[in-house]
Amino acid sequence: MNIVLGVGGGIAAYKSALLLRLFTEAGHKVTVIPTEASTKFVGVATWEALSGRPATNDVFDAVDQVNHVRIGHEADLIVVAPATADLLAKAAGGQANDLLTTTLLMARGPVLFAPAMHTEMWRHAATQANVATLRSRGIHVLDPAVGRLTGPDTGPGRLPEPEAIFAAALALVPGVLVAESATTDAATTDVATSDAVTPVPDTAAAVANGAAALYGRHVVITAGGTREPLDPVRFLGNKSSGKQGVALAESALAAGATVTFIHAHMDVAPPAGATLQAVETALELRSATLAAAGSADVVIMAAAVADFRPSNVSTGKIKKRDNVADPVINLVRNPDILVEVVAHRAAQNQRQLIVGFAAETGDAESDALGYAREKLRRKGCDLLVVNEVGPGESGAEKVFGQDANRVHILSLDGAAPVQAAGSKRTVADAVVELVAERLGPG
Length: 442
Fold this sequence. Notes:
Layout (H helix, E strand, L loop, with lengths): L1 E6 L5 H13 L3 E6 L9 H8 L15 H8 L2 E7 L1 H9 L5 H8 L4 E5 L3 H5 L1 H12 L3 E2 L3 E4 L5 E5 L3 H9 L5 H4 L5 H9 L8 H7 L9 E6 L4 E2 L5 E2 L6 H12 L3 E6 L11 E4 L3 H12 L4 E4 L6 E3 L20 E3 L3 H12 L4 E8 L7 H12 L3 E6 L15 E8 L6 E6 H16 L3
Parallel strand pairs: 1-2, 1-3, 3-4, 4-5, 8-11, 8-13, 11-12, 13-16, 16-17
Antiparallel strand pairs: 6-7, 9-10, 14-15, 17-18, 18-19
Protein backbone atom coordinates (compact mmCIF):
# COMPACT_ATOMS: atom_id res chain seq x y z
CA MET A 1 0.00 0.00 0.00
CA ASN A 2 1.21 3.52 -0.79
CA ILE A 3 1.05 5.77 2.26
CA VAL A 4 1.86 9.47 2.50
CA LEU A 5 3.04 10.58 5.93
CA GLY A 6 2.76 14.33 6.42
CA VAL A 7 4.76 15.70 9.34
CA GLY A 8 3.82 19.02 10.94
CA GLY A 9 6.11 21.42 12.74
CA GLY A 10 5.81 20.40 16.37
CA ILE A 11 8.01 18.76 18.97
CA ALA A 12 5.95 15.59 18.61
CA ALA A 13 7.46 15.09 15.14
CA TYR A 14 9.99 12.73 16.71
CA LYS A 15 7.17 10.25 17.42
CA SER A 16 6.34 10.16 13.72
CA ALA A 17 9.68 8.45 13.09
CA LEU A 18 8.34 5.52 15.13
CA LEU A 19 5.06 5.66 13.20
CA LEU A 20 7.02 5.56 9.94
CA ARG A 21 8.85 2.44 11.10
CA LEU A 22 5.56 0.74 11.97
CA PHE A 23 4.27 1.39 8.45
CA THR A 24 7.44 0.29 6.66
CA GLU A 25 7.97 -2.79 8.84
CA ALA A 26 4.38 -3.83 8.00
CA GLY A 27 5.36 -3.82 4.32
CA HIS A 28 3.93 -0.48 3.19
CA LYS A 29 5.66 2.05 0.91
CA VAL A 30 5.76 5.42 2.67
CA THR A 31 6.47 8.84 1.19
CA VAL A 32 7.21 11.38 3.90
CA ILE A 33 6.32 15.03 3.27
CA PRO A 34 7.72 17.12 6.14
CA THR A 35 6.71 20.74 6.46
CA GLU A 36 9.57 23.21 6.48
CA ALA A 37 8.95 23.93 10.16
CA SER A 38 9.06 20.24 11.04
CA THR A 39 12.62 19.92 9.72
CA LYS A 40 13.69 22.10 12.65
CA PHE A 41 12.75 19.15 14.86
CA VAL A 42 13.56 16.13 12.66
CA GLY A 43 15.80 16.46 9.62
CA VAL A 44 15.07 15.28 6.09
CA ALA A 45 17.90 12.76 6.32
CA THR A 46 16.00 10.86 9.02
CA TRP A 47 12.88 10.55 6.90
CA GLU A 48 14.79 9.43 3.82
CA ALA A 49 16.85 6.90 5.76
CA LEU A 50 13.80 5.34 7.45
CA SER A 51 11.55 5.35 4.38
CA GLY A 52 14.15 4.64 1.70
CA ARG A 53 12.48 7.32 -0.45
CA PRO A 54 13.05 11.04 -1.11
CA ALA A 55 11.40 13.38 1.42
CA THR A 56 10.57 16.94 0.40
CA ASN A 57 7.87 19.58 0.76
CA ASP A 58 8.92 21.60 -2.28
CA VAL A 59 6.50 21.54 -5.22
CA PHE A 60 9.41 22.42 -7.50
CA ASP A 61 11.39 19.27 -6.71
CA ALA A 62 11.12 16.65 -9.51
CA VAL A 63 8.87 18.94 -11.54
CA ASP A 64 8.87 16.44 -14.41
CA GLN A 65 6.96 14.00 -12.20
CA VAL A 66 4.29 16.60 -11.29
CA ASN A 67 4.54 15.56 -7.64
CA HIS A 68 1.89 17.97 -6.38
CA VAL A 69 -0.67 15.97 -8.39
CA ARG A 70 0.87 12.52 -8.66
CA ILE A 71 1.58 11.81 -4.99
CA GLY A 72 -1.99 12.50 -3.86
CA HIS A 73 -3.45 10.46 -6.73
CA GLU A 74 -1.25 7.44 -6.01
CA ALA A 75 -1.74 7.46 -2.23
CA ASP A 76 -3.97 4.76 -0.77
CA LEU A 77 -3.84 6.55 2.58
CA ILE A 78 -2.61 9.91 3.86
CA VAL A 79 -1.69 10.35 7.53
CA VAL A 80 -0.67 13.72 8.98
CA ALA A 81 1.09 13.36 12.33
CA PRO A 82 1.60 15.61 14.10
CA ALA A 83 -1.13 17.82 12.69
CA THR A 84 -0.54 21.30 14.12
CA ALA A 85 -3.21 23.96 14.50
CA ASP A 86 -1.69 25.67 11.48
CA LEU A 87 -1.95 22.55 9.33
CA LEU A 88 -5.55 21.92 10.37
CA ALA A 89 -6.40 25.51 9.45
CA LYS A 90 -4.71 25.24 6.07
CA ALA A 91 -6.45 21.95 5.27
CA ALA A 92 -9.86 23.27 6.34
CA GLY A 93 -9.33 26.39 4.22
CA GLY A 94 -8.17 24.44 1.19
CA GLN A 95 -4.81 26.17 1.00
CA ALA A 96 -2.22 24.81 -1.42
CA ASN A 97 1.05 26.57 -0.77
CA ASP A 98 3.41 23.59 -0.41
CA LEU A 99 3.65 19.93 -1.38
CA LEU A 100 1.77 18.63 1.65
CA THR A 101 -1.26 20.89 1.28
CA THR A 102 -1.48 20.29 -2.48
CA THR A 103 -1.24 16.55 -1.87
CA LEU A 104 -4.12 16.78 0.60
CA LEU A 105 -6.24 18.50 -2.04
CA MET A 106 -5.45 15.76 -4.55
CA ALA A 107 -6.19 12.87 -2.17
CA ARG A 108 -8.49 10.16 -3.45
CA GLY A 109 -8.19 7.79 -0.50
CA PRO A 110 -8.83 8.23 3.22
CA VAL A 111 -7.06 11.00 5.15
CA LEU A 112 -6.27 10.87 8.86
CA PHE A 113 -5.07 13.81 10.97
CA ALA A 114 -3.46 13.16 14.37
CA PRO A 115 -3.40 16.57 16.11
CA ALA A 116 -0.74 17.72 18.57
CA MET A 117 -0.57 21.17 20.13
CA HIS A 118 -0.98 22.98 23.43
CA THR A 119 -4.32 22.57 25.17
CA GLU A 120 -5.35 26.19 24.63
CA MET A 121 -4.72 25.89 20.90
CA TRP A 122 -6.69 22.66 20.65
CA ARG A 123 -9.64 24.11 22.58
CA HIS A 124 -9.65 27.42 20.69
CA ALA A 125 -12.88 28.02 18.80
CA ALA A 126 -10.99 28.43 15.52
CA THR A 127 -9.29 25.04 15.84
CA GLN A 128 -12.51 23.33 16.86
CA ALA A 129 -14.31 24.89 13.88
CA ASN A 130 -11.57 23.69 11.54
CA VAL A 131 -11.76 20.17 12.96
CA ALA A 132 -15.55 20.17 12.56
CA THR A 133 -15.18 21.33 8.95
CA LEU A 134 -12.70 18.58 8.13
CA ARG A 135 -14.84 15.90 9.76
CA SER A 136 -17.91 17.13 7.88
CA ARG A 137 -16.00 16.44 4.66
CA GLY A 138 -15.32 12.84 5.64
CA ILE A 139 -11.74 13.44 6.82
CA HIS A 140 -10.78 11.56 9.96
CA VAL A 141 -9.41 13.69 12.81
CA LEU A 142 -8.32 11.94 15.98
CA ASP A 143 -8.73 13.65 19.31
CA PRO A 144 -5.35 14.35 20.91
CA ALA A 145 -4.26 12.34 23.91
CA VAL A 146 -4.33 13.83 27.40
CA GLY A 147 -1.08 14.15 29.32
CA ARG A 148 2.19 16.01 29.75
CA LEU A 149 2.89 18.62 27.08
CA THR A 150 6.01 20.67 26.37
CA GLY A 151 7.18 22.12 29.68
CA PRO A 152 5.11 21.69 32.83
CA ASP A 153 1.69 21.87 31.12
CA THR A 154 -0.70 18.93 31.21
CA GLY A 155 -3.95 18.46 29.31
CA PRO A 156 -5.42 17.39 25.96
CA GLY A 157 -2.96 18.08 23.16
CA ARG A 158 -0.44 15.22 23.17
CA LEU A 159 0.07 13.31 19.97
CA PRO A 160 -1.55 9.87 20.33
CA GLU A 161 1.01 7.11 20.60
CA PRO A 162 2.35 5.86 17.23
CA GLU A 163 0.80 2.43 17.74
CA ALA A 164 -2.65 3.97 18.22
CA ILE A 165 -2.28 6.11 15.09
CA PHE A 166 -1.03 3.07 13.17
CA ALA A 167 -4.09 1.03 14.19
CA ALA A 168 -6.56 3.82 13.45
CA ALA A 169 -4.99 4.56 10.06
CA LEU A 170 -4.92 1.02 8.70
CA ALA A 171 -8.50 0.45 9.83
CA LEU A 172 -9.58 3.11 7.29
CA VAL A 173 -8.46 1.22 4.19
CA PRO A 174 -10.88 -1.45 2.91
CA GLY A 175 -9.27 -4.84 2.42
CA VAL A 176 -5.75 -3.84 3.39
CA LEU A 177 -5.82 -5.55 6.78
CA VAL A 178 -6.31 -9.04 5.36
CA ALA A 179 -5.02 -8.67 1.84
CA GLU A 180 -1.59 -7.37 2.75
CA SER A 181 -0.92 -9.28 5.95
CA ALA A 182 -0.37 -12.54 4.09
CA THR A 183 2.64 -11.04 2.33
CA THR A 184 4.12 -9.28 5.35
CA ASP A 185 4.42 -11.99 7.99
CA ALA A 186 8.17 -11.56 8.26
CA ALA A 187 7.93 -7.79 8.46
CA THR A 188 5.26 -8.02 11.12
CA THR A 189 7.45 -10.30 13.20
CA ASP A 190 10.27 -7.77 12.90
CA VAL A 191 8.05 -5.04 14.35
CA ALA A 192 7.58 -7.03 17.52
CA THR A 193 11.22 -8.03 17.96
CA SER A 194 13.46 -5.41 16.35
CA ASP A 195 15.72 -3.52 18.76
CA ALA A 196 15.22 -0.39 16.67
CA VAL A 197 11.46 -0.22 17.11
CA THR A 198 9.32 0.17 20.20
CA PRO A 199 7.47 -3.16 20.61
CA VAL A 200 3.98 -2.99 19.15
CA PRO A 201 1.19 -3.47 21.69
CA ASP A 202 -1.91 -5.55 21.05
CA THR A 203 -3.80 -2.88 19.12
CA ALA A 204 -1.20 -2.37 16.43
CA ALA A 205 -0.22 -6.02 16.23
CA ALA A 206 -3.82 -7.05 15.69
CA VAL A 207 -4.21 -4.63 12.81
CA ALA A 208 -0.89 -5.56 11.22
CA ASN A 209 -1.79 -9.24 11.42
CA GLY A 210 -5.10 -8.73 9.66
CA ALA A 211 -7.45 -9.26 12.61
CA ALA A 212 -10.32 -7.45 10.90
CA ALA A 213 -13.19 -9.49 12.30
CA LEU A 214 -15.34 -6.36 12.70
CA TYR A 215 -14.31 -4.62 9.50
CA GLY A 216 -17.18 -2.51 8.16
CA ARG A 217 -19.16 -2.78 11.41
CA HIS A 218 -20.33 0.20 13.45
CA VAL A 219 -19.81 -0.35 17.18
CA VAL A 220 -21.25 2.00 19.81
CA ILE A 221 -19.54 1.81 23.20
CA THR A 222 -20.51 3.65 26.38
CA ALA A 223 -17.97 4.13 29.16
CA GLY A 224 -17.19 5.99 32.33
CA GLY A 225 -19.34 6.96 35.28
CA THR A 226 -22.30 9.33 35.10
CA ARG A 227 -22.60 12.21 37.54
CA GLU A 228 -25.98 13.41 38.81
CA PRO A 229 -25.86 17.01 40.11
CA LEU A 230 -27.09 17.93 43.57
CA ASP A 231 -26.15 21.60 43.28
CA PRO A 232 -23.62 23.61 41.23
CA VAL A 233 -20.64 21.99 43.01
CA ARG A 234 -21.80 18.55 44.19
CA PHE A 235 -22.96 15.41 42.46
CA LEU A 236 -23.78 11.76 43.00
CA GLY A 237 -21.21 9.63 41.19
CA ASN A 238 -19.47 6.28 41.19
CA LYS A 239 -15.97 4.80 41.08
CA SER A 240 -15.83 3.93 37.38
CA SER A 241 -12.49 4.91 35.77
CA GLY A 242 -13.48 4.21 32.15
CA LYS A 243 -10.46 1.93 31.63
CA GLN A 244 -12.50 -1.08 30.52
CA GLY A 245 -14.54 0.99 28.07
CA VAL A 246 -11.41 2.47 26.51
CA ALA A 247 -9.91 -1.02 26.18
CA LEU A 248 -13.08 -2.22 24.45
CA ALA A 249 -12.90 0.67 21.98
CA GLU A 250 -9.25 -0.01 21.22
CA SER A 251 -9.98 -3.70 20.67
CA ALA A 252 -12.92 -2.95 18.37
CA LEU A 253 -10.84 -0.46 16.38
CA ALA A 254 -8.08 -3.03 16.03
CA ALA A 255 -10.67 -5.47 14.70
CA GLY A 256 -11.53 -2.98 11.94
CA ALA A 257 -14.72 -1.48 13.37
CA THR A 258 -15.88 2.10 13.20
CA VAL A 259 -16.39 3.09 16.82
CA THR A 260 -18.64 5.70 18.39
CA PHE A 261 -17.45 6.21 21.95
CA ILE A 262 -19.94 7.88 24.30
CA HIS A 263 -18.30 8.59 27.63
CA ALA A 264 -19.19 10.08 30.97
CA HIS A 265 -16.50 10.94 33.53
CA MET A 266 -13.27 8.96 33.05
CA ASP A 267 -9.86 8.92 34.71
CA VAL A 268 -8.11 8.00 31.46
CA ALA A 269 -7.82 9.52 27.99
CA PRO A 270 -10.44 8.51 25.41
CA PRO A 271 -9.38 6.15 22.62
CA ALA A 272 -7.67 7.55 19.53
CA GLY A 273 -9.48 6.70 16.32
CA ALA A 274 -13.02 6.68 17.71
CA THR A 275 -15.76 9.26 17.23
CA LEU A 276 -16.13 10.77 20.69
CA GLN A 277 -19.14 12.18 22.49
CA ALA A 278 -18.86 13.39 26.07
CA VAL A 279 -21.86 13.36 28.42
CA GLU A 280 -22.37 14.05 32.10
CA THR A 281 -25.63 12.58 33.38
CA ALA A 282 -27.60 9.39 32.83
CA LEU A 283 -30.25 11.29 30.85
CA GLU A 284 -27.59 12.75 28.57
CA LEU A 285 -26.10 9.29 28.11
CA ARG A 286 -29.53 7.91 27.28
CA SER A 287 -30.17 10.49 24.55
CA ALA A 288 -26.75 10.05 22.97
CA THR A 289 -26.89 6.25 23.07
CA LEU A 290 -30.37 5.92 21.58
CA ALA A 291 -29.41 8.31 18.79
CA ALA A 292 -26.22 6.44 17.95
CA ALA A 293 -27.72 2.95 18.29
CA GLY A 294 -29.93 3.45 15.25
CA SER A 295 -27.00 2.87 12.88
CA ALA A 296 -25.03 0.44 15.03
CA ASP A 297 -24.28 -3.22 14.39
CA VAL A 298 -23.14 -3.61 17.98
CA VAL A 299 -23.94 -1.68 21.16
CA ILE A 300 -21.69 -2.30 24.18
CA MET A 301 -23.00 -0.67 27.35
CA ALA A 302 -19.90 -0.51 29.56
CA ALA A 303 -20.73 2.80 31.27
CA ALA A 304 -21.51 2.84 34.97
CA VAL A 305 -24.89 4.55 34.88
CA ALA A 306 -26.47 5.97 38.03
CA ASP A 307 -29.67 4.13 38.93
CA PHE A 308 -31.03 7.23 40.67
CA ARG A 309 -30.77 11.02 40.46
CA PRO A 310 -31.87 13.78 42.83
CA SER A 311 -35.47 14.78 42.24
CA ASN A 312 -34.50 18.43 42.69
CA VAL A 313 -31.22 20.14 41.83
CA SER A 314 -30.44 23.21 43.90
CA THR A 315 -29.59 26.31 41.87
CA GLY A 316 -27.21 27.43 44.62
CA LYS A 317 -24.69 25.58 46.75
CA ILE A 318 -26.43 23.72 49.58
CA LYS A 319 -25.23 25.41 52.77
CA LYS A 320 -24.35 23.71 56.04
CA ARG A 321 -25.90 25.85 58.81
CA ASP A 322 -26.13 25.15 62.54
CA ASN A 323 -29.65 26.57 62.86
CA VAL A 324 -31.09 24.72 59.83
CA ALA A 325 -32.00 21.04 59.62
CA ASP A 326 -29.78 18.85 57.51
CA PRO A 327 -31.09 18.54 53.96
CA VAL A 328 -33.02 15.48 52.85
CA ILE A 329 -32.21 14.36 49.33
CA ASN A 330 -35.05 12.66 47.50
CA LEU A 331 -34.09 10.40 44.62
CA VAL A 332 -35.95 9.38 41.48
CA ARG A 333 -35.15 6.41 39.27
CA ASN A 334 -33.22 6.95 36.06
CA PRO A 335 -34.42 5.20 32.90
CA ASP A 336 -32.93 1.80 32.14
CA ILE A 337 -30.92 2.63 29.02
CA LEU A 338 -29.99 -0.98 28.25
CA VAL A 339 -33.63 -2.07 28.30
CA GLU A 340 -34.54 0.85 26.03
CA VAL A 341 -31.81 -0.04 23.54
CA VAL A 342 -33.13 -3.63 23.43
CA ALA A 343 -36.68 -2.35 22.91
CA HIS A 344 -35.50 0.04 20.19
CA ARG A 345 -33.85 -2.85 18.35
CA ALA A 346 -37.07 -4.85 18.45
CA ALA A 347 -39.16 -1.91 17.26
CA GLN A 348 -36.80 -1.25 14.34
CA ASN A 349 -36.39 -4.98 13.57
CA GLN A 350 -32.62 -4.49 13.57
CA ARG A 351 -30.02 -7.22 13.28
CA GLN A 352 -27.99 -5.86 16.12
CA LEU A 353 -25.92 -7.39 18.92
CA ILE A 354 -26.30 -5.78 22.34
CA VAL A 355 -23.83 -6.30 25.19
CA GLY A 356 -24.56 -5.21 28.72
CA PHE A 357 -22.26 -4.90 31.72
CA ALA A 358 -23.18 -5.70 35.29
CA ALA A 359 -21.28 -4.89 38.46
CA GLU A 360 -22.65 -7.35 41.00
CA THR A 361 -22.13 -8.39 44.60
CA GLY A 362 -23.43 -11.47 46.36
CA ASP A 363 -25.34 -11.77 49.62
CA ALA A 364 -27.05 -14.40 51.77
CA GLU A 365 -29.73 -15.02 49.12
CA SER A 366 -27.55 -15.45 46.03
CA ASP A 367 -24.06 -15.07 44.68
CA ALA A 368 -23.07 -12.41 42.13
CA LEU A 369 -23.59 -14.73 39.15
CA GLY A 370 -27.07 -15.65 40.33
CA TYR A 371 -28.08 -12.01 40.42
CA ALA A 372 -26.40 -11.47 37.04
CA ARG A 373 -28.39 -14.27 35.37
CA GLU A 374 -31.61 -12.73 36.63
CA LYS A 375 -30.49 -9.34 35.36
CA LEU A 376 -29.72 -10.80 31.91
CA ARG A 377 -33.23 -12.25 31.74
CA ARG A 378 -34.79 -8.90 32.66
CA LYS A 379 -32.66 -6.79 30.36
CA GLY A 380 -32.92 -9.00 27.28
CA CYS A 381 -29.49 -8.17 25.88
CA ASP A 382 -27.55 -10.84 23.99
CA LEU A 383 -24.49 -10.91 26.24
CA LEU A 384 -23.89 -9.72 29.78
CA VAL A 385 -20.34 -9.11 31.03
CA VAL A 386 -20.34 -9.60 34.78
CA ASN A 387 -17.86 -8.02 37.20
CA GLU A 388 -17.92 -9.04 40.83
CA VAL A 389 -17.18 -5.77 42.59
CA GLY A 390 -16.26 -4.83 46.11
CA PRO A 391 -13.07 -5.09 48.16
CA GLY A 392 -10.68 -7.93 47.38
CA GLU A 393 -8.59 -9.89 49.86
CA SER A 394 -6.09 -7.02 50.12
CA GLY A 395 -8.87 -4.53 50.79
CA ALA A 396 -8.43 -2.80 47.42
CA GLU A 397 -11.23 -2.64 44.88
CA LYS A 398 -11.47 -5.73 42.67
CA VAL A 399 -12.48 -3.81 39.52
CA PHE A 400 -12.92 -0.05 39.74
CA GLY A 401 -9.77 1.84 38.80
CA GLN A 402 -7.68 -1.32 38.48
CA ASP A 403 -5.62 -2.30 35.43
CA ALA A 404 -6.70 -5.94 35.58
CA ASN A 405 -10.14 -7.49 35.51
CA ARG A 406 -11.91 -10.85 35.78
CA VAL A 407 -15.31 -11.34 34.18
CA HIS A 408 -17.93 -13.92 33.31
CA ILE A 409 -19.72 -13.41 29.98
CA LEU A 410 -23.26 -14.77 30.09
CA SER A 411 -25.40 -15.42 27.00
CA LEU A 412 -29.16 -14.96 26.74
CA ASP A 413 -29.39 -18.08 24.55
CA GLY A 414 -28.05 -20.23 27.37
CA ALA A 415 -24.60 -20.89 25.95
CA ALA A 416 -21.93 -21.82 28.46
CA PRO A 417 -20.47 -18.79 30.26
CA VAL A 418 -17.13 -17.53 29.00
CA GLN A 419 -14.53 -16.47 31.53
CA ALA A 420 -11.81 -13.91 30.83
CA ALA A 421 -9.12 -12.60 33.15
CA GLY A 422 -6.02 -10.48 32.85
CA SER A 423 -5.45 -6.92 31.73
CA LYS A 424 -8.52 -4.92 30.81
CA ARG A 425 -7.34 -5.10 27.19
CA THR A 426 -7.23 -8.90 27.44
CA VAL A 427 -10.79 -8.90 28.74
CA ALA A 428 -11.83 -6.48 25.99
CA ASP A 429 -10.31 -8.73 23.32
CA ALA A 430 -12.31 -11.67 24.68
CA VAL A 431 -15.55 -9.66 24.52
CA VAL A 432 -14.84 -8.38 21.00
CA GLU A 433 -13.91 -11.87 19.80
CA LEU A 434 -17.18 -13.26 21.11
CA VAL A 435 -19.10 -10.38 19.52
CA ALA A 436 -17.46 -11.07 16.16
CA GLU A 437 -18.31 -14.75 16.40
CA ARG A 438 -21.95 -13.96 17.16
CA LEU A 439 -22.25 -11.49 14.29
CA GLY A 440 -20.67 -13.75 11.72
CA PRO A 441 -19.54 -12.48 8.27
CA GLY A 442 -20.65 -8.94 7.41
